């Protein structure tokens, strides 16, 4: 669910809009689902390899949105469930009854983890 999206055959020099909110139905690319939130897509110019700038046909694009090297996956998703649940629990906006789409402070999305039964 949160691992990278492996993309092939992007053209060097093309500009892509990487989704930063996680709401897009066309992951990893933006479909403007962020409208009405504070999130904005990351404009990314397709480049060659980091090593030498040479041609590249395979890109590992982040899907969890917690990467430290956007839009590339850096394996931050490995510890994401624990980080996410901690952030939601400690969020100043909690409890999130009024959140319709996404909490802009902690990333809570209604229905992402339906663990309300566990808390009772």
From TrEMBL:
<feature type="domain" description="Iron-binding zinc finger CDGSH type">
    <location>
        <begin position="41"/>
        <end position="83"/>
    </location>
</feature>
<dbReference type="InterPro" id="IPR042216">
    <property type="entry name" value="MitoNEET_CISD"/>
</dbReference>
<dbReference type="GO" id="GO:0046872">
    <property type="term" value="F:metal ion binding"/>
</dbReference>
<keyword id="KW-0001">2Fe-2S</keyword>
<keyword id="KW-0408">Iron</keyword>
<dbReference type="InterPro" id="IPR052950">
    <property type="entry name" value="CISD"/>
</dbReference>
<keyword id="KW-0479">Metal-binding</keyword>
<keyword id="KW-0411">Iron-sulfur</keyword>
<protein>
    <recommendedName>
        <fullName>Iron-binding zinc finger CDGSH type domain-containing protein</fullName>
    </recommendedName>
</protein>
<dbReference type="GO" id="GO:0005739">
    <property type="term" value="C:mitochondrion"/>
</dbReference>
<dbReference type="Pfam" id="PF09360">
    <property type="entry name" value="zf-CDGSH"/>
</dbReference>
<dbReference type="GO" id="GO:0051537">
    <property type="term" value="F:2 iron, 2 sulfur cluster binding"/>
</dbReference>
<feature type="domain" description="Iron-binding zinc finger CDGSH type">
    <location>
        <begin position="2"/>
        <end position="40"/>
    </location>
</feature>
<dbReference type="InterPro" id="IPR018967">
    <property type="entry name" value="FeS-contain_CDGSH-typ"/>
</dbReference>
